[in-house]
Each structure stands twice: as C-alpha cells, then as structure tokens.
Design brief:
261 residues; eight-stranded mixed sheet; 38% helix; alpha/beta; Rossmann fold
C-alpha cells in the first residue's frame, strides 16, 4: 500500500514527524475504526479521525439531529435538524477527506448489531451517552477480542481510557467492567439532558479519544490501557488513575458468551 501524491501533500505534517512518518501514516490508512455514537463525543472524534486519514470509518447512531444538539455537536448545521445523525455525519465527513471510506448505520446499538458489526473493524470507539450501550460495547469487545476507546462526559467533567487492549506480550488490559462491574441502578445518575453539559467539554474529550485511537493504531506514545484519565474542565485539572484488570469479571463475560446491556 502506498500514498498517492495528493495524500503525501495532505499528510505532509505527519510525514515530517520523526516519531511518526510514513510507517505510521500507512497504518492509519489500513485501519478500520467504528465510532458508536455521532453526538457530542462522536463529532470531534470523527472530525479528527477523518482528518488524520483513517482508511475506513463506520458510524452507528439511531438519533436525528435536534436543535439542542447544536450547542456541542459540531458536525451539524441548522439545515441538518430532523435528519439522521449517522447519515448526515458521513455526508459532511466525505467532503472533508475523499481518501477515507465511510459506512453509516442508522440503527440502535444492540447485542445483535454489535456481534454483526464489530468483527469488521480493528478498533471500536465508545462515544455513547448511556450505560446500556457502554456495557454492550464492553462485552462485545471482550467476546470478539477487540480493543475500544472509552469516553464519557458529565456537566463539566469527562473521562477517557483504552479498554481490552493487548500489550506487547499479548495480554489484554482491563475492561470497562474492571472499573465499573455493573450498571448503576436506573434513575440514580441523571443524563446529560437532565443535568446539562458545557458545550466545549465533548470537544475536549472526543479529541482525546481520537488521539488515543491514533496512538493505538500507530503504536506511538504510551496508551491509556490500565489508566483512567479524568478531566475537570472548570479548573483545567487532569488526573490519571490506575485501573487493575479483574480476572474474575473478565473471565465471566467470556464464559457467559452473551452480551449484557
């Protein structure tokens, strides 16, 4: 696989980096990434994944664009209101980089759709906004042996990590269940709609998810596998916490061979 003359020009700033260069750029071109959720987190993640030159990007979302989305979901315009996010997102992204292949899935993520879609991708990016989807993503990735980049936001704070990723010895790192073994009781944690979220926070967290994805694909830097990055956007405080792998929880998902939601 080679880069065309147009791609060489487009990605010239990457190619000038001694720590990155042609080898890393070709890894991005060969990569296949599925972004689950094209909302606040998905929009900035998708913008940067498209810009850096991921070879194939899938987008799954069942929502339509609403007026209240425009405060933070930077892919969309007023003309997109009422249209399906997954379809509109891909339309906008195609105009930004014609060298990227896209697939849109205007459907809700379920255990069945996860089993069907995830095998076609190298990396899953969790840009969802509800616990049911997060546990579906986690369990599907464990069963299918896929790494995934996690992101979440609440009011002024956010979190990022890389779950179920193998280290250089082939051992898988912690999963989302190692950090949060089971979903909270329904109604105990308000949604973003109920509690609110500052408009710039998804941009910060979604961009960090894109960065973590690029690092995993290319092998540069140190990943967040085994770490949880917590961000307080009001005070601009970043904290990094260790996450240990819980062998029992990890094994239970494999032995159960079912995806919990």
């Amino acid at each position: 696989m080679k880069l065309s003359k147009e791609e060489l020009l487009r990605y010239s700033r990457h190619l000038s980096l001694n720590e990155f260069g042609m080898v890393a750029q070709l890894k991005l071109k060969q990569a296949k990434v599925l972004v689950v959720g094209a909302g606040g987190l998905g929009c900035p993640a998708l913008l940067y994944l498209t810009a850096v030159g991921i070879g194939k990007i899938g987008v799954i979302d069942f929502d339509n664009v609403e007026t209240s989305n425009l405060q933070r979901q930077v892919l969309y315009t007023e003309e997109d209101i009422g249209k399906p996010k997954a379809v509109v997102a891909v339309e906008h992204l195609l105009r930004r980089n014609s060298f990227v292949g896209f697939e849109s899935f205007n459907t809700r993520l379920t255990a069945s759709s996860a089993k069907q879609l995830f095998p076609d991708y190298d990396l899953i990016i969790d840009c969802t906004d509800n616990f049911n989807a997060r546990y579906i993503i986690n369990d599907a990735c464990v069963l299918l042996d896929k790494p995934f980049v996690y992101g979440s936001i609440f009011k002024f704070e956010g979190q990022v990590s890389l779950f179920n990723a193998k280290d250089k010895t082939g051992i898988s790192g912690p999963t989302y269940r190692c950090l949060f073994p089971s979903p909270p009781a329904e109604g105990t944690i308000p949604s973003c709609e109920e509690a609110g979220v500052i408009g710039f926070l998804p941009g910060l967290i979604g961009t960090l998810q894109a960065a973590e994805s690029v690092k995993w694909i290319t092998g540069i830097g140190e990943s967040l596998s085994g770490k949880l990055l917590s961000v307080n956007s009001l005070d601009i405080v970043f904290n990094l916490f260790d996450v240990a792998r819980n062998e029992n929880l990890w094994a239970n998902v494999l032995s159960n061979e079912s995806i919990q939601g």
